[in-house]
Amino acid sequence: MTETSFRRLRYAMVGGGRDAFIGAVHRKAIALDGQAELVAGALSSSPEKAKASGRDLFLADDRNHGDWRGLLDDELKRPAHERIDFVSIVTPNHMHFPVALAFVEAGFHVVCDKPLVHTRAQADALVDAVARMGTVFGVTYNYTGYPMVRQARDMVRSGVLGEIRKIVVEYNQGWLATRLEGEGNKQAAWRSDPAQSGAAGAIGDIGSHAENLVATVTGLEIESLCADLNSFVPGRPLDDDGSLLLRFKGGARGVLIASQINTGLENDLRLRISGAQGTLEWRQERPSELTHLPHDGPKRILTRGAPWLCESARRASRLPSGHPEGFIEAFANLYGGVIADIRAKLAGTAADPLAADYPRVEDGARGVRFIERTVASATSEAKWTAW
Amino acid sequence: MTETSFRRLRYAMVGGGRDAFIGAVHRKAIALDGQAELVAGALSSSPEKAKASGRDLFLADDRNHGDWRGLLDDELKRPAHERIDFVSIVTPNHMHFPVALAFVEAGFHVVCDKPLVHTRAQADALVDAVARMGTVFGVTYNYTGYPMVRQARDMVRSGVLGEIRKIVVEYNQGWLATRLEGEGNKQAAWRSDPAQSGAAGAIGDIGSHAENLVATVTGLEIESLCADLNSFVPGRPLDDDGSLLLRFKGGARGVLIASQINTGLENDLRLRISGAQGTLEWRQERPSELTHLPHDGPKRILTRGAPWLCESARRASRLPSGHPEGFIEAFANLYGGVIADIRAKLAGTAADPLAADYPRVEDGARGVRFIERTVASATSEAKWTAW
Amino acid sequence: MTETSFRRLRYAMVGGGRDAFIGAVHRKAIALDGQAELVAGALSSSPEKAKASGRDLFLADDRNHGDWRGLLDDELKRPAHERIDFVSIVTPNHMHFPVALAFVEAGFHVVCDKPLVHTRAQADALVDAVARMGTVFGVTYNYTGYPMVRQARDMVRSGVLGEIRKIVVEYNQGWLATRLEGEGNKQAAWRSDPAQSGAAGAIGDIGSHAENLVATVTGLEIESLCADLNSFVPGRPLDDDGSLLLRFKGGARGVLIASQINTGLENDLRLRISGAQGTLEWRQERPSELTHLPHDGPKRILTRGAPWLCESARRASRLPSGHPEGFIEAFANLYGGVIADIRAKLAGTAADPLAADYPRVEDGARGVRFIERTVASATSEAKWTAW
Amino acid sequence: MTETSFRRLRYAMVGGGRDAFIGAVHRKAIALDGQAELVAGALSSSPEKAKASGRDLFLADDRNHGDWRGLLDDELKRPAHERIDFVSIVTPNHMHFPVALAFVEAGFHVVCDKPLVHTRAQADALVDAVARMGTVFGVTYNYTGYPMVRQARDMVRSGVLGEIRKIVVEYNQGWLATRLEGEGNKQAAWRSDPAQSGAAGAIGDIGSHAENLVATVTGLEIESLCADLNSFVPGRPLDDDGSLLLRFKGGARGVLIASQINTGLENDLRLRISGAQGTLEWRQERPSELTHLPHDGPKRILTRGAPWLCESARRASRLPSGHPEGFIEAFANLYGGVIADIRAKLAGTAADPLAADYPRVEDGARGVRFIERTVASATSEAKWTAW
């Protein structure tokens, strides 16, 4: 083993400065396990805010940049023992593509928030670049980092439920039930601006998580879909609510609901998968429970931390059962996978698949296609829009 | 007041003999409040089973009939002080129409199980007959008898949620996940036989409850719908699973799911209604709780029996809060409404609307239309099928 | 088989008139299964109210009595084919003893509400009379009628939990948190009056249910106890709150809490039993669920109506799983047991123990002892008061 | 403001090496907010394990010590800009006293795990030293770091519940239901060894958390208590289960249960507080919910992250509602308080009370008294043992 396991990795962040939400989550998630440290950044599109944000985070002045190109240039000039091992991109959506592509082309490993990019062409370009450069590229579909999602994946894929028949996935929030974007809320503003958010609102922001959750747990591919997208809040140019009927290859059927106007609901991502032999239910707001309803026996509640879980779920857990883990731990599990993959590359070895368990650029590209197909269906008079 | 309030009403039952399920529920529901007693019956399509069933229920021999026409003929010959006040029809679906029509045409009040009849033409004929004869006609969409459904209705209609935007209603069961109809299960057999059940399986059997629940609580009318119906169990001629996108007049959107192949789920009817000001959630399996999520305050759990509920909910309750009431009480509330209406007719007075609160023949007719439109959509290539 | 199975049993009720609570529950519970009918009564200590109440219930005038002695005298004069098969006593506590003793001594079967009587001497006298007369005597510790309590009993007694170590039983209500008895509330008034209620308030009214629940499920006997009884509401002469430490023969330890000043709690009876191999949890407010936590596997939720429950639990159920049953059904299960026992006596056969499953006079007597020992401990300076 | 807010604080850890549990939790909690970094340690009582553990954590060799005295000596020799700002003590209980006293006497700020020390004399000595030296001293009663515990404290203390009457606190675990200490489990071994754990087992390990939770939320003082302590697992010298009746000054009454033999239960700390106007319920396993049951209105579920919470609860939250936070965040909140207090001392200013919100050495001392009084009561024949 090389020296790489005896040091923390170094990372930079693009976006995530003052007023941002998700950047701090990424940083806390990375800090949790002490395997990487923030050494550089371009933390805002506003140079002043970027610098001030970097000082908040104790960045050295010469690594605290006013824009991402400055960061990239500077890193390329630094010696290997100072240079970052990866960059974390947590900007609004429209910046994902140029930043990610530039860092990948420069040979850096990347973690990028979702949805990956705006268009399928961008997604394809990014997939190609990652393949060409051989870099690690993680997409933070963070909900798949929960241990009990991994347990669900293991149970579905090992056939515990039998043939999958019906999938219902919902992602309900209420925070955009009023026109927050008109009241100076930065989070609401960029999400409801097509130039920054892309062709979709709720479907892109949270529907893509729902799509990824289904794909991750079941491995099933969507064959066709039928979407109804709505914009309930007057003056909002993008959807704030959507419902889809789904048909999967192989015969399973599904429903996907994503809504940000469900007043009073907080972050209600939930999944129900029924197979011929049983059903699984999981809810993000009680992430440490997975309910298994066998067709021929009592309901079982599996909880995080139990010794009878699959190895993938057990590894994704830091505390004994009953000691609540949450959102940041799930995030940290994705970063743990990325870091394991980077360490393997640094060491010139193959990564342990159980360790390097995180959504890849291809998952991000599939999510972009999901958004595009959903928007196409929403404006079509045909019942089914092919994938 | 006439003498009618000083006596129990008399009723007959058609169907509901040995091996039946729902007939006993009707009888227990009626018995609960002691306002009516079973005096006659034609309890099965098999004359021998009908007679044996009547003896189980302590029917007098001369009022224990082998077929429903014999019952009707006999009742018409009896003097007023012996004659039944109403008949309860709890046969498989295909018998609802001839029996109900005959009793209505003969001037009897009727309670009939759902779905009302097989076709819109039959439904129209029945609505006409009831209007012409002026009889009381209740349809046992029993889930609307729960006190907290009535509370939800009151809150939605009085504007607590603001303008309604999104409705998600699900009715999930797992008991038909295997081919029970091939194993001698009578309940499964008639439900999956088009001749007895009609054009739909799960959508008719339980989807119609979901439709009625939405209509009752919100008063909204469906404008168009988009249905995907499936039959997962090999050899089953009717749907055992369905999902619909709904568009309501006035702009609300919805999803309706009805499935009988959700392994491990029991009787999971649930409703979520989001308006601009708040959301309501209700689940049949915890019927005494209604969750209200205001947009601007903490979640509230309203429970049956509390003094701050609306009068309609308070009247529908027999026990103090915390003393569980259930399915039979909800059923009994519908019968309570029918009986109040019959007593008013006997007394020649107008019924108290809060007392005579039950689904009418028109609700049954709307349910038939829902089934028909859903089946039409399921075979259409157009996205939206108009109501 | 004699003719007795071909007729409904006849019963009378003492107490339970207008303004009463529990009498109506008894009547509804009996009506539910149609195996017995109310034919006579002395429904209140006020003759006028008794008569008016009887008319509400459609009693014949000559069987509608102004006092219980009149009822008893009249029944003794009637021919066997008219005479009641049993009497149901639902008066305030202080009347249980004279009424029950008189009917037993006259050879009638009796169902009596709890707590049975005021003193151990009365309890002994009643136990003796029942033994001497050979009558059926049921005590309506209704919570043991729930199917999942019977399932818990079966699991504990068949060793699923291993050796029992710790028992925590709570019965929390909030309705007496203010001085309702000073505001004309009849239920509150007699419960807080020592002359009508006996030596204890909350401990007698609801603590006795908790004691019975533990005894029924576990079969364990209390060896000694340590009680702290309190009266929080000024001017209330009896306890409205109590907590006990319990030591059971054989080494198990326990805690019993009974309180009627737990503001906002409704009827929160709950039981947790831990053995060396697992734990069971049950809550009256969700009576159809029994949670089993094995030491070495995932939590299991057993639900009413499932085919894998014990026969005793299955028999105590009327509806499929997921169709909520409640308080009245549990009550009806006790009456079902009493009626099965009476039918067996009428037929001169031995009752099926699985059918004749109900709390006996001895259970009532043990409950009286529990109250007496608790009150003794509450005024003792010794830590442990022997049973 | 001094430069101190522009740098991370430096800390050392004593204990918490390989095989330990809670040390890693402390480190993750501190890392979460990026306000302090681990620069030195003596991570095990075994010098080799200590060194190996330090290397795992990327400690510099010259600050990676084989024993705590070496660490202390070294720190005292270092210049201010290298020296630690505080030490975190996460050893088994018996080492808390000597280590904490030595660091306090040397003028270092300290965070120490609970229970604080073995005896009241030790506790008094530590309280004196802290007062004399003016150092910051935090005790990681971590459950008080949950936002909804702070919300409960605010509601109770501001009178929302009215006069407090009844308190029920339970802390149930099942992991010590078998003799794990005989199977090489290090966590079980030291906890059941009186030399390392002190005079109590479960009551010290988890009962002390329950005591602290009640004291923190209510501010009430125990007047007298009555304890039953048990050791169910053969061969275990300390209690693994205990139940107490509590009497508080001012008239409130309570029950405290702490058990580690509740098979199947995970980390079930729960609190219920009833006052004259309402009840609060909180469960550690669902830490982001606080249930408020007003006497005169529907149940309310308050959730972490809502804008209507008190400022103390709002400040203790890092993510929007619905994004689960857990155990580590609660821990981090205590460290946040300690760090705020240290920063204020470094700056020579008074700490913001809302920021410097953490359990102090006096809370630890009161916990030691609680254990001592409980053990005294358990062996007493008197009902009540005075505080």
TrEMBL record, chains A, B, C, D:
Q: Which InterPro entries match?
A: Gfo/Idh/MocA-like_OxRdtase_N (IPR000683), Gfo/Idh/MocA_oxidoreduct (IPR051317), GFO_IDH_MocA-like_dom (IPR055170), NAD(P)-bd_dom_sf (IPR036291)
Q: Which SUPFAM superfamilies match?
A: Glyceraldehyde-3-phosphate dehydrogenase-like, C-terminal domain, NAD(P)-binding Rossmann-fold domains
Domain GFO/IDH/MocA-like oxidoreductase stretches = 149-281
Provide the Gfo/Idh/MocA-like oxidoreductase N-terminal domain boundaries. Answer: 9-141
Q: Which PANTHER family match?
A: CONSERVED EXPRESSED OXIDOREDUCTASE (EUROFUNG), OXIDOREDUCTASE
Question: Could you identify this protein by its name?
Answer: Gfo/Idh/MocA family oxidoreductase
UniProt source species: Variovorax ureilyticus
